[in-house]
Amino acid sequence: MTHPHLGPPLEGEDEKSASRKNVAHLSPLVPQGDLLRGKREDEKPALRGKQTMAEKLLSRHNLAGTPVYAGDIIEARIDGAMCHYHAAEPMHDLALQAGFNDGLPRVWDPDRVFILLDHHQPTLNQAQADKNALIRHEVNRLGIKCFHDAEPGIAHQMMADYGLMRPGELVVGNDSHTISYGALNCGGAGITRADMFFVLLFGELWFQVPPTVKVVLDGKQPDYPIAKDIILYLAGKYGDDFAGSMSIEYAGALVPQLSIDSRMCLSAHGVEVGAKFAMFPFDEVTREFVKKRTDKPYEPVAADADAIYEKEIRLNVDEMPFVVAKPHQFGNVCPVGEVSGTRINQAQIGSCANGRFEDIESAARMLKGRKVAKGVRFLISPASQQVYLQCLKAGHVETLVEAGAQVITPGCGICQPKVGFLSDGEVCITATTRNFKGRKGSQQAEIYLGGPLTVAAAAVAGSIENPKEVFDEL
Amino acid sequence: MSFDLDKPIKGRVWKFGDSVETDAINPYYQYPTMEELKLHTLEAYRPEFPQEVKPGDILVAGRNFGCGSSRPGLVLREVGIAAIVVESVSRLFMRNSIARAMPIFMAPGITGIVNDGETLEVDYPKGIARNPATGKTVAIRAFPPLIERIVNAGGLLEFARQRYLAEKNV
Fold this sequence. Notes:
The structure holds 2 protein chains of 2 kinds. Chain A has helices spanning 13-24, 53-61, 89-97, 126-142, 155-161, 193-202, 227-238, 260-268, 284-291, 351-354, 357-367, 385-393, 396-403, 452-461, 467-470, and strands spanning 73-77, 80-83, 113-116, 146-148, 170-173, 187-190, 204-208, 212-218, 247-251, 277-279, 311-316, 323-325, 333-335, 346-349, 377-380, 406-407, 427-431, 446-449. Chain A is an alpha/beta fold. Chain A has a domain at 324-469: 2-Layer Sandwich (Aconitase, domain 3). In chain A, the strands form 5 sheets. In chain A, strands 4-3-2-5-6 form a 5-stranded parallel sheet, with helices on both faces. In chain A, helix 4 links the parallel strand 3 (113-116) and strand 4. By secondary structure, chain B is α/β, with parallel strands linked by helices. Chain B has a single domain (9-168), classed as Aconitase, domain 4. In chain B, 30% of the residues lie in helices and 17% in strands. Chain B has helices at residues 22-25, 34-40, 49-52, 74-78, 91-99, 145-153, 156-168; strands spanning 9-15, 58-61, 83-86, 104-106, 119-123, 128-130, 137-139. The chains are: A alpha/beta, B alpha/beta. At the A-B interface, helix 1 and helix 6 of A face helix 5, helix 6 and helix 7 of B.
C-alpha cells in the first residue's frame, strides 16, 4: 500500500482472500467472461505467472502490488482520467448527492485529469452553452490544467492527437469508447459517471481483471481501410458480446500492416462486442505515432508468450467480404450483397470509429470525379480539428465538397441525434459507432453500419451496393 | 437511495430480449430530463412499457443487457422497477448498477423459467430466482464482498464520501 497521498484501499488483504474463495464457489453456469466469473478449473497455481496483456497491465497498476489474474478483483492506480461534457453538471450533482455541498472538493492530481468538450461543441442551444460555462468554472476552481475548451472534436481522438495517453498506461474515461486507447497499447477503459467521481477524488478504481480473447488477424491490408468490416464481421459471426467483460488482444500478421487509424477503429469498437480493454501490441507503428505527440516516458505492455487465453478467434481478411450491420443492432451483420439495392436518404462518415484521416481519404479518393446521388445527404465529420486540418491540406475536403458531400464540424454529433436527424421511414448508412433504433432521431428510421468505402459507394449509387461494383478501380 | 440486498423481492415480470441498449433505456439525447425519460424509457422495444409499468415490477431480459454507452439506468428505478434479472449484463451497465446501488442480478437461465406478466421471486441471500407458479428456480450469482459493501453502503458515492471523511480525520 504505497500510494502517496491516499488512505486505505477499498478492500483489505483479508477481504481479498475472502473474495477469491467466494468467486471460486460460483455456479458452473457462470457465463465466460462475465463480472464475477469463476476461475477456470484448470487454473493450477503452476500456471500462474504467465500473463496476458490485461493481466500485466493491471498487475502493474494494482495498489496491492501483487501480480493479478483473470477473475481477481483489484483496486487499481489510474494514470489518466478523460472527462468530457460530464465534467460539470453531472459531477457537481454527484458531489451533492455524496454530501459535498460545495461540489467536488478536489481532484486527486490536476495533471492527470483531461477535460475535453466534445459532445457539446459548438453548442447547439442555450442549455449546452450554460453547461459548458459551468465546466469552465469548475476547471478553474479545481486547478485542472489540461482543458480543451474552444476546440471541437472527439475527446478520444484529441487524447491521441495531443499525446495525452501513452502505451502501458491505465486511462479511464466516462465514455464507453475510451476503450479506443488500446490502439496505442494503452489500457483505455470506459467507466461510469459515478466511477469517474470516485477516480477524480482518489485516482483509484476497482476492476475485475478480465479474461482475454485473442483475435488473430491474418491476410493482407488492401489500399483502403477494412477495420470496420473486420469488427462487424466478427460481431456477426461470434455475437455482439463475444468479448463480454473480457479484454481483446489483437494479434496476427495483419497487425503490423494496420495504421493507427485502423487500430483505433478496431479498439473503439471493442465496446460494441462487450470488451473492457481492446489492446494492440506495441510496435514500430505505435512508436512512431507516439514519438510525434509526446516526449513523456512510457513503458509498453506485452503479453507473455504462453499466457492463458479464454478463447482465440481467427480471421483471414483476404477471405472477408464487405459487410454491413442491418438495423438495429451491431451484431445484425450480413455481406453487403444481401442488402444491395436498398435505397438510402443519408450517408455518413465520422465518429470515434471512422472519422479519421484514412476513412475520409478513402472516401475522397473514390468520390474524385464522381457525384453524390441526387437527394442523398452525405455527411462527413472529421474526428478532430487536427484530422480536419490534415484532410484540408491534402485537398480531400475540396474533393468531397465538389462531389456534393457536406463536411460538418468535428465532434460526436454525427453519431447521435444531434446533427443530421432522420425522419420516419428514412434509411441511413453510416460509418459511425452504433445503429440502435432512434440513434439518429426517428424510431421509424433504419440505420445500417458499414465501412467508409461501403458508405461512399452508397452515397454515389443512392443505394447500398458492393463498393467493388460501384468503384471499378477497386 | 439504497436497497437491501438481504430483502427478497417479488413482482410482476416485464420480459425483454437480448442486447437491450442504453439508448433505449436512457434516451437522454432526446429526453434530457428525468420526467421526460420516464415517459419514454424502453419504448423502442415495448411502446406500452412507460405507461403501464408499476412500482414493484421486475424486469427480466436476455444476455448483454445494457449494452452500448456508459449511461446509467436510473430511470428504471424511477419508474418503479424493483429488480433487474438478466442472463448477462454489459460491464458498464453493471458498473453503473453497483455504483448507484441498483438491484441487478445475473441469473443464467432466467429467461427460460418465467414469461412476461408472470410473477418472479428474487431471493439474493438464498441465491435463487423462482417462479412461484411453476416452482422452477435458477441460481443468482453472488457478488464478491467488496461489491456487496459498495451496494450496502448505498453505492459508490456514499462509499467515496465515507472514505474522504475518514482520510480527512486521520
